[in-house]
Here is the input.
Amino acid sequence: MITVTNLAIQFGKRVLYKDVNLKFTHGNIYGVIGANGAGKSTLLRAISGDLEPNKGTVEMGPGERLSVLEQDHFKYDEYRVMDTVLMGHQPLWENMKERERLYAKPEMTEEDGNRAADLELKFAEMNGWEAESNAAQLLQNLGVKEELHDKLVGELSNTEKVRVMLAKALFGNPDNLLLDEPTNDLDLDTVEWLEEYLSNIEQTVLVVSHDRHFLDAVSTQTVDIDFGKVTMFAGNYSFWYESSQLALRQAQNQKMKAEEKKKQLEEFIRRFSANVAKSKQTTSRKKMLEKLNVEEIRPSSRKYPGIIFQMDREPGNQILEVEGLKAVDEDGTVLFDNVNFNIEKGQKVVFLSHNPKAMTALFEIINGNRKADAGEYKWGVTITTAYLPLDNTAFFQSDKNLVDWLSQYGPGNEVAMKGYLGRMLFSGEEVLKKVNVLSGGEKMRCMIARMQLQNANCLILDTPTNHLDLESIQAFNNNLVAFKGNILFSSHDHEFINTVANRIIELTPSGTIDKLMSYDEYIYDDAIKEQKAKMYGLE
Here is the structure.
């Protein structure tokens, strides 16, 4: 259990929040949401003790242990992978080190012997004899192979380091667990394992994540940081979003009577409670929703960007034909080979691969930025494209302000450009910022504004939710669902893929898997799992 009392945090004159009073209890997982810069990670740092609050206290239950997913991926470079994970349970690790020191002595005193006996007792109480096998199992579940367990963390790739840090945070069943973006750099299978793992534990867990599917799968409650206030709501992210949107529509409808509003909200809660049966956290979340008072449902003051893609021209029947396409990485790795497909009108296609470089290579080839190692492609004569690349660095190597920068990419005067930027939440003096000082999220919003200017009928999006906050992802997602043209995209956002894509093409070193089905159907289909294993040479 974690109790936060009268917490206040400010940096200089900027007050993030004040008078925060919250109690986080065992058996609940709290999804922490808020716009970029609202203070989500800061809240976790204050709870962990990494950041001293300006006011207030954070207390845990007596004798409870806290574990944190650390963000410094170089901190443990000099340690073995196995030792790093064991350090996640600090009392156990200190016990192990002290026992080692005592037993390494040429001769032990009586005092040493008594101390060793005490340590052995505590070691057994902490399940010390099973520690290494539990840590090894945890690492394997997170995709860190056994042959890496004795290597130094510094010898691992960044993706592997992320998994080791996650294993360290989870190890030893801590009473309280703080996870900041735990799904970053994880593949679908590992995310699924983590969802299952978190759904079966009884600890107190706080999670910051931009992954809506993950938040929905694990959260029993939502902590919303919005304009200086930290508020707790029952239910997961989808429930919070849908209920806040409903409350907003009601607030805008001045004619609606109070009784009608209450009836509408009660019906919404009933409907959502029935749907929650699909969740792994069914029982606890249903109880939350049953206790919920309709008065607690309020409109959010959160601003959503106005992302609206329009087409100057209706696409014809010929969209894109690809024949025998092949791409090889610089190190000689075959990213994909023998890729053949024909995109039809209205299709929204997600491209998947075990190697994310494969999708980037494909998009760069069909945009004319990279030469294919074999094969060819042909666009239909009516098709106009707008491309959102994975790496947008080259676009921002300029000291132009936002208005001048955007003016390069489409017709319209200064007022029109400010309108596009305003829709992407750049207001007032912000439009005069130099583009070379923008954050990752701001750059992405600029790139989306640029795409909107092009009025293309085919959108090509390489991992478009990177660097975006939940509000931008939600707005982007909603517009792509409504878009009438074609979309070719890659993503690691489960919800984004599942709601946008109506066709799936997986790129492998030995051809493609091409299915007209939903993403959920695709990933859980046993025959497809078998086919994938063969095509990636995993059998």
